[in-house]
Each structure stands twice: as C-alpha cells, then as structure tokens.
C-alpha cells in the first residue's frame, strides 16, 4: 500500500441482512469516490441479498463475513483496530441486539467490539421490530455507550407497508458519517433539538401565495450536524425541496400558522430550538376560496395582517415561566443593511440567547451552499464565522448551544 493510500481515512462498512443492503452499494461508492479506503464486512446472511463480488469490486478490498479467513492477519481484531469509522447500514434488529450484548459470533460483531473509533449504526427493519421494547432497549444501551444510532426514515418498507424503519437515503447517511469523521464531538447526545427551516407561504387564494426565497439549506445543515453530534432532531420544514436529513424527524408545514403549531408543540420537550426559517411577517387578511379573476381593469389591493412572532413567543413563554421551555433559543436574522446594529437590536427585542446574523441579497445566503455570519450571544462576545459551508456555520451554532446547555 502506498503512503498516499494509507493517508486515506479507513472506513469499515458493515452490512446487515436486510433488503436495504442494496442501498449500501451506493453508500460504498460515495465513500470510495471521495477518497476513503473501505473494507466491507457483511454478515453471512447479508450476502444472500448482495453477493461478495459486488462488495469486492466496488471497494477494491477483500470481503469476508468470517473470522476464519486470512487468520494470519488476525482480521477479527485488526479491521476494527485500524478503522477511523465503522458504519453499519443497514443495521438489522439482530445486529443491534448482538452489538448491545457484546456478542462476537462473526467478523462484523468482532469488529464492533475491537473498534475504538466512532461507530455509526443506521438501522432498517419493519416498524414492529423497530418499535419492539427489546430493540428500543438495545438502541438505548448502544446510545448510552456513545454509538451514534441514526433513526430510520419513515416511508415505504418491503412489501405494501409503510412506517418508521426505512434506511435513510445513502447520501444523507454519508453526510452524517462525513461530519463524524471530521471529528465533531458527540456533545448533543441525549438532547432534543428543534430546527425550523425554509420559508413560510401565506395563501392569497387556492393557487397563489406570498413567499420568500429561503431554500432551507441552512436549516437542513443545522439538522444534519445536530444528528451527527448525537441529538434527537425535529426538523420543521416550510416548503423545502431537499432530501430529508438522515436521522431527523421531519414535519412539513406551509404557512406561518402551521410552523408555529409544529414548533411550539415540539419545543415543549426540547432542550434547544433554532429558528432558521424565514417566517412571513404578514399574511393576507382574507384568503379567497376561489381563484381571484382579473375581471376588473384595476387590481384589487391585498390587505395584510400581522403574523405572530414565533421566536419572540417562545422567549416570552420561557421568561414568564408558561409551561416547559427550551433552555437555549436561537434565531436567525437576515439583514440587507447595517447588519450588526440591526442584529443587536433584534437579539434584545426578541429575548433569545443566540442570533445568527447574516447578510442577504443577490447571491448571498439564499440557495447557496456557503454562508458567512456573525453569531451574537446574549451576555457574551459575538463570534464571527467566515464564509464557508453551511454545515460549518451550523457546527458553530451547536458549539454555542452545547456550551450553554452545559
Ligand atoms: N421569526 C419568527 N416569527 C416571525 C418572524 C420571524 O419566529 N413572525 C424568527 C425567524 O425565524 C428568525 C428571527 O425571528 O429566527 C428573525 O427573523 P427576521 O425576519 O430577520 O426578523 P423580524 O422580526 O421579522 O424583523 P424584520 O423583518 O423587521 O427585520
């Protein structure tokens, strides 16, 4: 092996015996194409779904499920010891049970016992198995020990049934793994966070609305990075056309009223809320039941009425001790001019703990993968975040949230 090859991060991709094993081929490709050295370790039964030649050809490495092959290389110890990340996708109920109990009947479970690197498990199974008390207990045990168990997605399962248990999109599992490999701390483990994303739409009539240009990219980056740091994430998404981040519970909303209901309901049990959504300040006072026709020469004016300020409402509830409230509340402020002065005034006015202030305008922030911001901290110094990926800004926000959560 060349020194360049050795410098590649070493990933062990464990594959369990579930129909979603075919999706792990795509995950494998995402790793190899981005320069990772991947050793695939399927269970014996996983090979019934996808055979050894597929894994060997795609990874360029030998593939076995047994501890009895190449024994002189002591694979049952070496593979785990030398890994930078172990990810198991799909992780079946059986793998979760064996991992939780420290069983070591095959190469994958031996590898899980010898790995000292971060371990990510992406379960996929039928809803009944996922919700069974035995599986819940195994997941809780694994999480307590520091394993990152990414909640399955809700959707179509094998056969006609739907529900929680679907393997998340491979690209999204890959994004979580990338953040974990980047060395982010698991400092949100056991924490519940709520993130709002996207932009609300206020109906004028059944076909038209007043909206804004928010893509949801920053909110989705916040959700993704929080999952990688171990949080249980509820993502309230207003009109976002992006794939669901792996591991997050996504609640789709349209209007400010929908967003308010979803955020306030999830905030009751949350440790932190980050309002990244662009919320419409006003809505049409009356929503027409039928499409407005251009019958008259002059257009009818649209009368607007004020929307509730969800962020301010959350902060007011906490200040007044009305019901359970998140310990940390963060907002975003999109400003076009005088961004710092406006941001400081907004932080004080809303009463939140953190305010991420960014400049918006043509080609700035909206719809772009990058962002630059200043995070204003109540009672602390501002933190300047230079232009970079939205995931990096998200991690700065979580650093500050985690510090305040103590
Ligand atoms: N926000 C909210 N509810 C609203 C308006 C905004 O919860 N009705 C939240 C946003 O999600 C964001 C923060 O408040 O986290 C700031 O949003 P922004 O639109 O910049 O502030 P506004 O209060 O609307 O102030 P202005 O439009 O005057 O700048």
TrEMBL record:
Residues 193-406 are annotated as: Phosphopantothenate--cysteine ligase. Binds 1 FMN per subunit. The keyword Flavoprotein applies. Pathway: Cofactor biosynthesis; coenzyme A biosynthesis; CoA from (R)-pantothenate: step 3/5; Cofactor biosynthesis; coenzyme A biosynthesis; CoA from (R)-pantothenate: step 2/5. Its cofactor is FMN; Mg(2+). InterPro entries: CoaB-like_sf (IPR035929), CoaBC (IPR005252), DNA/pantothenate-metab_flavo_C (IPR007085), Flavin_trans-like (IPR036551), Flavoprotein (IPR003382). CTP binds at residues 281, 291, 308-311, 332, 346, 350. GO terms for molecular function: phosphopantothenate--cysteine ligase activity; phosphopantothenoylcysteine decarboxylase activity. It comes from the Bacteria. It holds the Pfam family DFP. Keywords: Decarboxylase, Flavoprotein, FMN, Ligase, Lyase, Magnesium, Metal-binding, Multifunctional enzyme. Residues 188-403 form the DNA/pantothenate metabolism flavoprotein C-terminal domain. Residues 1-192 are annotated as: Phosphopantothenoylcysteine decarboxylase. Gene3D superfamilies: CoaB-like, Flavin prenyltransferase-like. In the C-terminal section; belongs to the PPC synthetase family. In the N-terminal section; belongs to the HFCD (homo-oligomeric flavin containing Cys decarboxylase) superfamily. This is Coenzyme A biosynthesis bifunctional protein CoaBC. It comes from Sphaerisporangium corydalis. The gene is coaBC.
